[in-house]
Amino acid sequence: MAKKPVKINADLMHKIADRLAVGETLKDILKTAGMPTYQGVMQAVLRDDDLYEVYRRGRVMQSEYFTDHINSLAVSPLPAFEDNRLANAEVQRRRLEIDTLKWTLARNMPWGVRDKKEDQPQAQTFTISWAGGDVEVNTTEVVPDQKEERVTKH
Length: 154
Known about the structure:
This protein is mainly alpha-helical. It is built from five helices and two strands; from the N terminus they run αααααββ.
């Protein structure tokens, strides 16, 4: 049965973004009665810059939620298991969940919570130069029973 078309406006997109911000997936949100289709949301954010901005903010906040969730998974103690294989299975399940969420974080929030590229640390370079001619570099290579000095001029 096809869903009835739902008009996507700013209020509806804010509701979607608020639910994304608490860790719900878009697919699960859109299963709720009165919500648009997945394709409808994607088309709306492609066509309308304002709707995209609301959606993007929801995704950034979702990533913050996932960051906290990853930390909880990593530090929470394992339940007591009678069989060590079950404990290992739980560790592997957590590892898979963490890896999946880390991939999602890298995709959804590459520039941090403010979502601004200029806030990212930039690669820094420095240049060393000397005025006045040649630079002399001395290296000493020590070989057992032999000492040799090399001088290189640039």
